[in-house]
Amino acid sequence: MINYRKMTIADYDAVTALWQQTEGVRLRDSDSRPSLGAYLARNPGTSFVAEIDSEIVGAVLCGHDGRRGYLYHLAVAKTHRKQHIGKKLVELALTAIEQQGIFKVMIAVNADNFSGADFWKHTGWKPRPDLLFMEKTADGKPNA
Hints:
With 144 residues, this protein is α+β, with helices and mostly antiparallel strands. It has four helices and five strands; from the N terminus they run E-H-H-E-E-E-H-E-H. The chain has helices spanning 12-20, 33-42, 85-98, 114-122; strands at 3-6, 48-52, 55-64, 69-76, 105-107. A five-stranded mixed β-sheet has the order 1-2-3-4-5, sandwiched between helices. Strand 4 (69-76), helix 3 and strand 5 (105-107) form a beta-alpha-beta unit. The longest helix is centred in the middle third of the chain and has 14 residues, at 85-98. The chain is globular, with a radius of gyration of 15 Å.
Protein backbone atom coordinates (compact mmCIF):
# COMPACT_ATOMS: atom_id res chain seq x y z
CA MET A 1 0.00 0.00 0.00
CA ILE A 2 1.24 3.48 -0.86
CA ASN A 3 1.37 6.01 1.97
CA TYR A 4 1.44 9.70 1.02
CA ARG A 5 2.64 12.24 3.57
CA LYS A 6 4.17 15.69 3.90
CA MET A 7 7.89 15.87 3.26
CA THR A 8 10.16 16.72 6.19
CA ILE A 9 13.87 17.47 6.36
CA ALA A 10 14.31 13.99 7.86
CA ASP A 11 13.53 12.69 4.35
CA TYR A 12 16.50 14.54 2.85
CA ASP A 13 18.85 11.61 2.23
CA ALA A 14 16.19 9.35 0.72
CA VAL A 15 14.63 12.11 -1.37
CA THR A 16 17.92 13.40 -2.78
CA ALA A 17 18.98 9.82 -3.58
CA LEU A 18 15.73 9.39 -5.53
CA TRP A 19 16.25 12.70 -7.33
CA GLN A 20 19.82 11.72 -8.26
CA GLN A 21 18.53 8.51 -9.84
CA THR A 22 15.83 10.28 -11.83
CA GLU A 23 16.55 11.34 -15.39
CA GLY A 24 15.58 14.94 -16.02
CA VAL A 25 16.19 16.04 -12.41
CA ARG A 26 19.32 18.13 -11.98
CA LEU A 27 20.43 18.91 -8.46
CA ARG A 28 22.22 22.14 -7.62
CA ASP A 29 23.88 23.69 -4.60
CA SER A 30 20.45 25.06 -3.69
CA ASP A 31 19.35 21.46 -3.09
CA SER A 32 21.65 21.14 -0.06
CA ARG A 33 20.23 20.00 3.27
CA PRO A 34 20.25 23.57 4.75
CA SER A 35 18.62 25.02 1.62
CA LEU A 36 15.94 22.34 1.47
CA GLY A 37 15.29 22.73 5.20
CA ALA A 38 14.80 26.47 4.75
CA TYR A 39 12.50 25.87 1.75
CA LEU A 40 10.34 23.41 3.68
CA ALA A 41 10.16 25.81 6.65
CA ARG A 42 9.07 28.67 4.35
CA ASN A 43 6.53 26.44 2.60
CA PRO A 44 5.15 24.12 5.28
CA GLY A 45 2.87 21.30 4.18
CA THR A 46 3.18 21.76 0.41
CA SER A 47 5.84 19.14 -0.47
CA PHE A 48 5.07 15.42 -0.34
CA VAL A 49 6.57 11.95 -0.45
CA ALA A 50 5.12 8.55 -1.34
CA GLU A 51 6.25 5.55 0.70
CA ILE A 52 5.86 1.81 0.41
CA ASP A 53 6.99 -0.15 3.48
CA SER A 54 8.78 2.98 4.79
CA GLU A 55 10.78 3.33 1.55
CA ILE A 56 10.37 6.63 -0.29
CA VAL A 57 9.38 5.84 -3.88
CA GLY A 58 8.16 9.29 -4.93
CA ALA A 59 8.62 12.94 -4.03
CA VAL A 60 7.63 16.42 -5.12
CA LEU A 61 8.90 19.77 -3.88
CA CYS A 62 6.34 22.57 -3.96
CA GLY A 63 6.10 26.10 -2.62
CA HIS A 64 5.01 29.63 -3.45
CA ASP A 65 6.07 33.24 -3.30
CA GLY A 66 2.67 34.62 -2.30
CA ARG A 67 1.47 35.02 -5.90
CA ARG A 68 2.49 31.89 -7.83
CA GLY A 69 3.23 28.34 -6.88
CA TYR A 70 6.22 26.36 -8.14
CA LEU A 71 6.74 22.63 -8.44
CA TYR A 72 10.26 21.22 -8.46
CA HIS A 73 11.84 17.79 -8.70
CA LEU A 74 8.86 15.49 -9.17
CA ALA A 75 10.33 11.99 -9.13
CA VAL A 76 9.03 8.43 -8.91
CA ALA A 77 11.34 5.42 -8.62
CA LYS A 78 11.58 3.52 -11.92
CA THR A 79 10.33 0.40 -10.16
CA HIS A 80 7.10 2.14 -9.16
CA ARG A 81 6.10 4.12 -12.23
CA LYS A 82 2.79 3.72 -14.08
CA GLN A 83 0.93 3.51 -10.75
CA HIS A 84 -0.23 7.17 -10.77
CA ILE A 85 2.14 8.04 -7.91
CA GLY A 86 3.45 11.15 -9.67
CA LYS A 87 -0.05 12.30 -10.50
CA LYS A 88 -1.17 11.83 -6.88
CA LEU A 89 1.86 13.70 -5.51
CA VAL A 90 1.10 16.63 -7.82
CA GLU A 91 -2.58 16.60 -6.80
CA LEU A 92 -1.61 16.72 -3.12
CA ALA A 93 0.80 19.61 -3.72
CA LEU A 94 -1.72 21.57 -5.79
CA THR A 95 -4.45 21.10 -3.19
CA ALA A 96 -2.11 22.27 -0.43
CA ILE A 97 -1.05 25.33 -2.42
CA GLU A 98 -4.66 26.20 -3.33
CA GLN A 99 -5.60 26.05 0.36
CA GLN A 100 -3.06 28.84 0.84
CA GLY A 101 -4.77 31.00 -1.81
CA ILE A 102 -2.41 30.27 -4.72
CA PHE A 103 -4.26 29.39 -7.92
CA LYS A 104 -1.53 29.33 -10.58
CA VAL A 105 1.45 27.01 -10.42
CA MET A 106 4.50 26.99 -12.68
CA ILE A 107 7.02 24.30 -13.53
CA ALA A 108 10.27 24.30 -15.48
CA VAL A 109 11.09 21.18 -17.49
CA ASN A 110 14.60 20.70 -18.84
CA ALA A 111 14.51 20.96 -22.63
CA ASP A 112 15.99 17.47 -23.02
CA ASN A 113 13.55 15.85 -20.56
CA PHE A 114 11.10 14.48 -23.12
CA SER A 115 9.49 11.92 -20.80
CA GLY A 116 8.98 14.63 -18.18
CA ALA A 117 7.41 16.96 -20.74
CA ASP A 118 5.12 14.15 -21.89
CA PHE A 119 4.01 13.49 -18.29
CA TRP A 120 3.18 17.14 -17.69
CA LYS A 121 1.28 17.51 -20.96
CA HIS A 122 -0.62 14.27 -20.29
CA THR A 123 -1.72 15.57 -16.89
CA GLY A 124 -3.09 18.85 -18.26
CA TRP A 125 -0.13 21.25 -18.08
CA LYS A 126 0.45 23.55 -21.04
CA PRO A 127 3.63 25.08 -22.44
CA ARG A 128 3.81 28.87 -22.37
CA PRO A 129 5.11 29.94 -25.79
CA ASP A 130 4.66 33.58 -24.72
CA LEU A 131 7.36 33.24 -22.02
CA LEU A 132 11.12 32.96 -22.25
CA PHE A 133 12.65 31.49 -19.11
CA MET A 134 15.81 33.31 -17.96
CA GLU A 135 18.07 33.21 -14.91
CA LYS A 136 20.96 35.04 -13.32
CA THR A 137 23.29 33.54 -10.75
CA ALA A 138 25.48 35.31 -8.23
CA ASP A 139 29.13 35.77 -9.20
CA GLY A 140 31.15 32.72 -8.28
CA LYS A 141 28.05 30.53 -7.83
CA PRO A 142 27.61 28.78 -11.20
CA ASN A 143 25.89 25.76 -9.61
CA ALA A 144 23.44 27.77 -7.46
